[in-house]
Each structure stands twice: as structure tokens, then as C-alpha cells.
Design goal:
94 residues, 80% helix, mainly alpha
């Protein structure tokens, strides 16, 4: 299912798809927070999505951006293999 989300986002324009994805993450909370984390970890595992997602975070409202930042920090604390990628994203959107 998650791969389908990224497929559709890519097919319909990666930049716009990542923007819509970023906006949608806040709508998943709090009930589906674990799915939001899974979605973000999947994104972090694919180099092609990181830059467009980072660009999208620069365009979303501050509340959405902060919510995603908080989730990324949670992921970083629990999964050190993502530290470098998350740090890069956080540096670019700060």
C-alpha cells in the first residue's frame, strides 16, 4: 500500500505528490501515527524522494512542518540508521 502511495505521487508529479503527502501526514494523527512513521521511514529509504519531500516541507504551513519534524525526530531517536538523512532534511528546512 505504501509503495502505491509513492507510485501515485511520482506518476502525478513528484514535487506536487510530496507536497500532498506532507499535508496528509497531519491528517493521519493521532490515530495512525505508527503508519505516518512507517510512511516517513519508507520515504527515507528512497533517495529519489528525499529532496522533493524536503522541498515540499518548505512549502507547507508551519504547523504541518513542525508536526513532521517532531515525527522525524522520534524516528531518529529510535532508528539511528536514519540520522544522517534526517539531519540533512532538518538542516535544509530550518
Amino acid at each position: 500500500m505504501i509503495e502505491t502511495i509513492f507510485y501515485i505521487a511520482n506518476r502525478n508529479g513528484l514535487e506536487e505528490g510530496m507536497y500532498v503527502l506532507a499535508q496528509g501526514i497531519t491528517r493521519m494523527l493521532p490515530q495512525a501515527k505508527s503508519w505516518a512513521k512507517t510512511l516517513l521511514k519508507t520515504l527515507l529509504n528512497s533517495e529519489e524522494f528525499i529532496s522533493p519531500f524536503t522541498d515540499a516541507l518548505g512549502k507547507v504551513d508551519n504547523n504541518t512542518k513542525q508536526t513532521i519534524i517532531n515525527i522525524l525526530i522520534e524516528i531518529k531517536k529510535g532508528f539511528s540508521k536514519y540520522n544522517e538523512k534526517i539531519n540533512k532534511i532538518l538542516d535544509q528546512i530550518s
